[in-house]
Amino acid sequence: MEICRRGSACSPSSFLFLILFLLFISSSFPSLTLSASFRCHPDDKNALLNIKKSIDIPKDSYVPWDPNTDCCEWEDVTCDPNTNRVTGLEFRMITVFGQIPASISNLPYLETFVLALLKNDKLPGCIPDSFAKLHNLKRLEISWSPLSCRTPEFLGQLKNLEYLDLSHNKLHGPIPSSLANLSKLVHLRLNDNKLTGRIPNSLSALNVELIDLSFNKLTGDASMFLRADGKVKDILLTGNRLDFDMSMVGFPKNLKALHIGGNRIRGRIPEQVTELKRLEAFDVSFNRLCGRIPVGGNMQKLIASYFYHNRCLCGLPLPNKCKS
């Protein structure tokens, strides 16, 4: 039935009928009116609500996840503007009850997951095995937590991972060789843990720009990162028990910072270091190096403390001159 003909006036009874009709639709089918304004996929919303059951979200710093609202507008949640699927989940300064929720793996389009600066110092377990299903994950950061376990082997299955930060935890045991499968990895941070054993040689295949394994209990050789054809720009290995001959290494041409103090490194500093035009830091202090510090490039512009407490290093920027 035509309520109002175009270009003609509508009768009061027609207006009343239209209003009653709209009220009937909105009351009988509320999901139709709500879904039109919600972007979030219902499967993603269910997964997020299951995650909420395991995590305490303080009201003073987070907006509560209200199931009657669009989850793409929730605090700490990011959705893709085109697909409206959840792609990011970032928790900082929160209290976690129990283990990291396995239901996070029910967000198949997740690209970023961050869990950092936890208030609970009794977080048990480790990263759930179900995380291996997050094939779209590009950034995984679980740091500054009491996470205590071995570094999971399954991380090597996350082939799209570009940024891995598991620093400032209580991870123990060896570094898994499966990390060498992460061909897209750019940043690797495993520093400030309790990792032991030798660094896998397979990690030399990584094209990372930054690698930080400092302040663990790693032993043996680390020269796989010191190659003239490498792409790494920042190497941080301070405070381990590494033992190798520096005389035999080469330095990546784009190297900006080498922090390898507090180990058991021996030999001489290669002359090639003077060719590094971007070098800003070269900390080899508290090792067993000997010989003259190479002259040229940026070497004499560096602070003297970078070379302190070695067996017999000499020459600028150190105050002691080399014997002829």
UniProtKB/TrEMBL annotation:
Residue stretches making up the Leucine-rich repeat-containing N-terminal plant-type domain: 41-80
Classify the source by domain of life.
Answer: Eukaryota
Q: Give the record's keywords alphabetically.
A: Leucine-rich repeat, Membrane, Repeat, Signal
The answer to whether keyword Hydrolase applies is: no
Q: Read off the Pfam families from this record.
A: LRR_1, LRRNT_2
Q: Which residues form the signal peptide?
A: 1-35
What broad class describes the main subcellular location of this protein? other
Localization recorded for this chain is: Cell envelope; Membrane
Q: Which family does it belong to?
A: Belongs to the polygalacturonase-inhibiting protein family.
Would you tell me the protein name for this molecule? Leucine-rich repeat-containing N-terminal plant-type domain-containing protein
In which organism is this protein found?
Nelumbo nucifera (Sacred lotus)
